[in-house]
Structures are given as C-alpha cells and as structure tokens.
Amino acid sequence: MSGLTLDAGGLIALDRNERKVLVLLAEAARRGQRVTVPATAFAQAIRHPARQARLSRLARQVSTDLAHLDGPDATRVGVLLAQSRTADIVDAHVVVCARRARQPVVTSDPRDLHRLDPSLQLIVV
C-alpha cells in the first residue's frame, strides 16, 4: 500500500470515529505513507469544522495532501465522466487523485467508484 485516498464516505467514517478508518490511518502514519484528501470530498464531508476536529486535524497534517480541483484535474474529471457516462464530479475527482497517487480509496460507496474505474483498489468502510 502506498498510502490512502479518502472519499467523502471515508472522511465521514473518520468523523464518526470508526475503528477501521482509525486503524488504516494509524498504519499509514506508522509506515510514513501519504494520505490524499480530494478537496471536493472534503467539502462534502465538512459541515461544522469546530465540531469535526478529526477532519480538520487530518487536513492540516504534514502527511496529508489536500488535492485541489485545478484546471488540469477538472479536464481529467470531465473526460472520466464522459467515458463512464456518469455525473458525480466528486467521485470522479477521487478517482483521478487516487490514480495519480497510486493509492487505494477508503470509501463507503464502492459501486459508484467502480463504475468510474473497475480496476481501482477500494477499502470499504
């Protein structure tokens, strides 16, 4: 494993203090691995930053890459959506980020991500 990419479901599981996500993040930290958080997924999960300390802390960690949706990634997302005939920009951005980082995705929604990329490695929480 080269680290982790978290989609909104993975972030929500962290916010809910779900053990599986805590263990995955602890193991990634122990191994010195990067954690990728697409900014679009972060936007879906963060609602009350003052009460969501785990999410805020994760986003600030040195080992976390908060991946913004810039012009080149927006193009990649659009092409992926056209190829898959789907419309969820956030899911497509997660796939683009995970592919680039060569990381599995921590998700609660494997079906939608597999529609975008059947070869994507997923960790279901």
Relative helix content: 55-70%
CATH homologous superfamily (4th level) name: 5'-nuclease
Number of domains: 1
| CATH class membership | Alpha Beta
Strand-residue proportion: 15-25%
Radius of gyration equals: 14 Å
CATH topology: Rossmann fold
What is the string of helix and strand elements?
EHHEHHEHHEHE
Tell me how many strands there are. Answer: 5
Given the structure, what is the number of helices? 7
The side-by-side strand order for the widest beta sheet comes to: 3-2-1-4-5
Q: N-to-C terminal Cα separation, in Å?
A: 17 Å
Low-confidence sequence ranges: none
How does the major sheet shape up?
Answer: 5 strands, parallel
How would you classify the helix and strand content by structural class?
A: alpha/beta
Overall shape? globular
Mean pLDDT: 97
- Reported CATH architecture: 3-Layer(aba) Sandwich
Oligomeric state as shown: single chain
